[in-house]
Write a structure and sequence with these properties.
4 domains; mainly alpha; Annexin V, domain 1; Single alpha-helices involved in coiled-coils or other helix-helix interfaces; globular; 330 residues; 0% strand
C-alpha cells in the first residue's frame, strides 16, 4: 500500500508516527530548505489512513531488519541522509555537523531575503561574500540579486575566488550579526530570537534546566535575565487567568494531569482551580490528590508542562488570555 507514496511522503508519515521528540531530533539534521520541503509534505499527511501509516512503518522495519538501514552511529546518520537527500546534499549536511558553528551566520538562513540584503549592503564586499557563502545556494542567489546592481559583480567575484577565512574572523562576524539580528525588528524581517523566544523556550523545560540556564544568563546580564523572567508564563501564573479562561482550560486538560500538577502549585492556584469546578468535582479532585501519596517532582513538573501546553494552545486559538510573570490582567 505504501508503494504509491513518494520517498518524501513516506518520510513525512514516518516523522508524524514517531512523535514530536524523535521527529525533532531528525529535523535538526536537515537544512532549512529541506525542512520546509518536508514540512509541506507533513502538512499534507493529515488525511493519511491508519493502514497507510502502518505500511510505511512496516517498510521501515523491514529495511532495518534486512540491514538496508544500519544503526551504527555516524555511519547510520550518513546512510539515512544519503537515502533521504542524495550523496551531494548529505555530504554538505555531514560537513556542517562536524565543522565549527557560527550562530549569527547560520541564523541568517531563516531571515527574509530582502532583510538580509538591507543588512549587508553597507558592509565591505568581502564581508558580503563571506555571508553569502554561508547561505544556501538558492537563498544566496536571491540575496545577490537584491543587492544594488553596482555591487553585484564585485561581490560575486570575491565569492568565486574565496578559498579560506580565518575562524577568528568568522567568529567576530557571527557575533556582530547576532547583535544586529537581536536589534533588527524594525527591518521587517522574521524575528528569530530575543527575550520573548527565550522565555517561551524556558517555560517548556524542567525546573533544573531552566534554573541553570537563567543563572548563566544572569551572570552575563542581570537586566536581560530580569526581562526574560518577566516574560515567562509558569504554572503559578494560572492564578492570573480569569474564571472563564480557567473553565475553558479545565474542559481540555487531562484529568490524570490535574491532581499531579496541583501537588506542586501554590495555594492561590489551587483555590482558583477549585473555585471554577463544581463542588462535587472539587471534592473528587481533592480526594485524588490525597490518594496518590508521595509523587516524584519530575512527574509533577511533567503534568504541569502538559497543562501549560494546552494553555498556550488555547491562547493561540483566542479562547483564553494569559499573562506573563510580570504582567497583571485588567
Amino acid at each position: 500500500m505504501s508503494q504509491n507514496l513518494t520517498g518524501e511522503q513516506k518520510a513525512a508519515i514516518l516523522l508524524r508516527a514517531i512523535g514530536e521528540e524523535a521527529a525533532a531530533q531528525v529535523m535538526r539534521l536537515l537544512d532549512p530548505k529541506e525542512i520546509k520541503k518536508l514540512g509541506s509534505f507533513m502538512n499534507g499527511t493529515a488525511q493519511i489512513s491508519r493502514d497507510q501509516e502502518d505500511a510505511v512503518i512496516s517498510d521501515f522495519k523491514d529495511a532495518s531488519a534486512s540491514g538496508e538501514v544500519q544503526f551504527q552511529g555516524k555511519e547510520y546518520i550518513k546512510n539515512i541522509l544519503i537515502k533521504a537527500l542524495g550523496p551531494e546534499k548529505a555530504a554538505r549536511i555531514l560537513e556542517s555537523m562536524t565543522r565549527r558553528s557560527y550562530p549569527g551566520l547560520e541564523a541568517l538562513r531563516w531571515v527574509d531575503v530582502k532583510t538580509i540584503a538591507k543588512m549587508i549592503k553597507i558592509e565591505h564586499p568581502q564581508t558580503m561574500a563571506v555571508i553569502l557563502a554561508h547561505l544556501e545556494s538558492e537563498q544566496a542567489g536571491q540575496v545577490l540579486a537584491a543587492l544594488p546592481e553596482a555591487m553585484r559583480g564585485d561581490v560575486a567575484l570575491r565569492l568565486a575566488t574565496m578559498e579560506e577565512v580565518q575562524p577568528d574572523v568568522l567568529e567576530e562576524l557571527s557575533q556582530s550579526l547576532q547583535e544586529v539580528l537581536l536589534a533588527s525588528k524594525g527591518l521587517g524581517g522574521q524575528s528569530i530570537g530575543g527575550a520573548e523566544v527565550m522565555a517561551d523556550i524556558l517555560t517548556r523545560m524542567d525546573k533544573a534546566s531552566e534554573g541553570g540556564i537563567m543563572a548563566k544568563i544572569a551572570e552575563k546580564s542581570q537586566p536581560l535575565a530580569d526581562s526574560i523572567r518577566a516574560l515567562m508564563f509558569v504554572f503559578d501564573d494560572l492564578a492570573k487567568v480569569d474564571d472563564r479562561g480557567l473553565q475553558e482550560l479545565l474542559k481540555e486538560i487531562s484529568k490524570d494531569d490535574l491532581p499531579l500538577a496541583l501537588r506542586g502549585a501554590n495555594p492561590e492556584v489551587k483555590e482558583r482551580i477549585f473555585k471554577n469546578m463544581s463542588t462535587r468535582a472539587a471534592e473528587m479532585l481533592r480526594d485524588d490528590m490525597e490518594a496518590k501519596g508521595p509523587v516524584r517532582v519530575a512527574d509533577v513538573e511533567k503534568a504541569q508542562q502538559n497543562i501549560l501546553k494546552v494553555c498556550r494552545k488555547l491562547e493561540e486559538e483566542g479562547r483564553i488570555v494569559i499573562a506573563g510573570a510580570g504582567e497583571e490582567m485588567v
